[in-house]
Amino acid sequence: MPLITIRNLGVTLGTPLFAGLNLSVNAADRIGLVAANGRGKSTLLACLTGALEASEGEIIRARGLTIGHVEQNIPPALIGATFHAAVLSALPADQADSESWRVDVMLEMMEVPEALRARRLSELSGGWQRLALIARCAVGEPDVLLLDEPTNHLDLSRIVRLEAFLNGLPREAAVVVASHDRAFLDATTNATLFLRPENAAVFALPYGRARAALDAADAADERRYQRDMKQAAQLRQQAAKLNNIGINSGSDLLVVKTKQLKQRAEKLEEAAKPAHLERSAGAIRLANRGTHAKVLVTLEDAAIATPDGSLLFRTGRQFICQGDRIVLLGLNGAGKTRLVKALRGAIAGAPAEGAPIKGASAEGVSAEGGTGAGIKATPSLVLGYGDQALADLADADTPLLSLTRRFALSEQRARALLAGAGIAVEKQGQPLGRLSGGQKARLGLLVLRLTEPNFYLLDEPTNHLDIEGQEALETELMAHQATCLFVSHDRSFVRAVANRFWRIDRKRLVEVEDAEAFFAEAATD
Questions:
Q1: Measured between alpha carbons, how far is 483 from 263 in angstroms, rounded to an integer?
Q2: 325 with 373: CB under 8 angstroms?
Q3: Percentage of the chain with pLDDT > 90?
Q4: 142 or 249, which is more confident?
Q5: Per-residue confidence band for 19, with pLDDT thresholds at 50, 70 and 90
Q6: How far is Cα of residue 466 from the mean position of the Cα atoms in its chain?
């Protein structure tokens, strides 16, 4: 018997999010839930818990079913609780008194350091807060675990550990996970639901294979539609010819035949359904200004340090050349973000932040030690910088002001560009803080495009982008042969885009053949 049965489910919130959805969630199912930003994934999960009532259809839950739901945002009531207390409070009162050991077992399984367990969630990073919510839902061993974007804020090593944790759950447990992380979905699911306004598609396959099957089905639908429409057009042409002959000859038989052909054409046209066309969440386009310089950036054994001057690593002698798409690999704390900041400061000609490196001679001061020494950019380099926090965009600003203040654009042109990027007119005058993560990400990429750079420096560029957006960004970087250095935990994005691989290892920046060894080590670190 299914744990959850969904029959003809539909939700309309202003516009239809989905309709006619049928799905069974059985024990041992690991279902990936895929849709563009704002297309109903979180809404469907809320319907499954009973927190939201659907507009139509029904959801039948097995008697005594327990559901654990990990939402995207931490509940305000928990923000002041310690990590341990937040997880413990998920257990019923009697169980919390007698079986608090369950919390310790869960935190061990999730490899939460002892030092973090007594700290308040408000003091922890977004990644640890995310893991606290997952531990809180899993500790009660629910029959069904619903996860809404569980990899948000997690670095690669934590994502890989989360994969292992989910794959280690009891076989009879069911999991439904909404995510834009393609590699994560492939590693943790055995079925995929593509949520659509109509005709949602379900495949008993992990994401990658399910996506291929969906594309094939859509292509077949499109061929069938075009064939039916072509046949209908031919019938109408035949009807028109017979009609002319019938009129000229006065033949009642030809008039009847003409009517029959028209009716057949009408039936074909009514029954023909065009292939699904995904409504874009907003276009992503980049630009490449171009330069005659072959080498854009030279690193001459620059020393990258913490703000207090502690050495993180040295770069050795490295070059960034036209057409290089370099991914920067390294564990958390290795210095990836510090190198990105050093490059940005050196390119902009700004004094680098940070104290002089401890024990360094004046001759060997690093780019992070206050002088910018060791990093040299060609004079023709134009930087396009994007960070995951969109720090260059103030939350109090509006999208419209973000463009018109920075670029020589008329209001009409700025509004058209924003609309093309998926930011509706009513959102263009609102503070950026009210935009969704996906809308902010698309705004940040629009700003990059208008900057017309010839070198992109990107820190977690796929954060908050749906799969459509990730693939569009990949396509743009490849189509423009853009030169870029980027940091990303998105394995699919790295595999699709990077053609050079720099790794921070043992306080040195070294070039490696690919990212696969690093990905494998992240699973065992």
A1: 58
A2: no
A3: 58
A4: 142
A5: very high
A6: 4
Asked whether the predicted pLDDT for residue 237 surpasses 90, the reply is: no
Cα of 73 vs its chain's centroid, Å: 16
Contact between 502 and 335 (Cβ < 8 Å): no
Task: Say which DSSP state 68 is in.
Answer: E
Give CA–CA dist 366/374, Å, rounded: 6
pLDDT per position as a tens digit, 382-406: 999 988 666 677 778 899 998 998 8
* CA end-to-end span of the chain: 40
CA distance 383 to 484: 10
98 token code pair:
């007698």
Phi and psi at residue 430, in whole multiples of 5°?
A: -95, 155
For the record, the structure tokens of 171 come out as 């076989």
Structure-derived torsion over alpha carbons of residues 165, 166, 172, 176, reported in degrees to the nearest 10: 160
pTM of the model: 0.84
Dihedral sign from CA coordinates of 30, 34, 37, 42: negative
DSSP string, 371-406: S-TTEEE-TT--EEEE-TT-TTS-TTS-HHHHHHTT
pLDDT at 441 over 60: yes
The confidence score (pLDDT) of residue 368 equals 40
Residues linked to residue 59 through DSSP beta bridges, in sequence order? 6
Torsion of CA 445, 451, 453, 459, to 10 degrees: -40
Give residue 153's pLDDT band: very low, low, confident or very high (50, 70, 90): confident
Residues making up the chain, counted from first to last: 525
**Residue 420 and residue 414: Cα distance in Å, rounded?**
10
- Evaluate whether 207 touches 186 at the Cβ level (below 8 Å): yes
CB 133 within 8 A of CB 74: yes
Gap between the Cα atoms of 521 and 525, Å rounded: 6
Backbone angles phi, psi at 25, to 5 degrees: -110, 115
Residue 67 to residue 377: CA distance in whole angstroms:
55
Tokens 């609102």 sit at which residue?
430
Distance of CA 258 to the CA centre of its chain: 54
Query: What is the spatial distance between Cα 317 and Cα 314, in angstroms, rounded to a whole number?
Result: 9
Q: At residue 87, what is the residue type?
A: V
Q: Are 184 and 24 in contact (CB under 8 A)?
A: no
Tally: H helices and E strands in the chain: 18, 20
Place of tokens 């539609």: 225
Residue 281, both tokens: 């969440």
